[in-house]
């Protein structure tokens, strides 16, 4: 019998001072049985870092949501689609292979990868030359210590505040907070 995803609910208040975006998001995260709390929380952090694009790229008339991710390799971890159904932003978390990333670049206006874990630098050195062909792609390195701290915020029901100031995301639940400053590895058109 196949294991089912575990459902997490998050009420996320975003104050993105860098981009002038302030909104509340009621989110449902389905954590695949093979997904860790760390990876799930990186997905949530990636959504918070890119929520401003809903207003900037779709004038508020679009959908920002979690994709099937691990359940379907042809679906992003997070996507932003405008009212016509066009995929504006495709976001992957982890250390994807080059071919799916390049395929995503053909399906979306912009593709963003948030690489994490201690092996992310090794992954990047091995894949870097294969991914520099497209200007649609940005790759960010999430510091290992920060990503591991994010896992500590994971609960089945979460009330979280996200503040983005000078490129730093601070994500907290009222009792503790984690600061996350991603390191750019490759920055495409933005």
TrEMBL record:
<dbReference type="InterPro" id="IPR009822">
    <property type="entry name" value="YaeQ"/>
</dbReference>
<protein>
    <submittedName>
        <fullName>YaeQ family protein</fullName>
    </submittedName>
</protein>
<dbReference type="InterPro" id="IPR038590">
    <property type="entry name" value="YaeQ_sf"/>
</dbReference>
<dbReference type="InterPro" id="IPR011335">
    <property type="entry name" value="Restrct_endonuc-II-like"/>
</dbReference>
<dbReference type="Pfam" id="PF07152">
    <property type="entry name" value="YaeQ"/>
</dbReference>
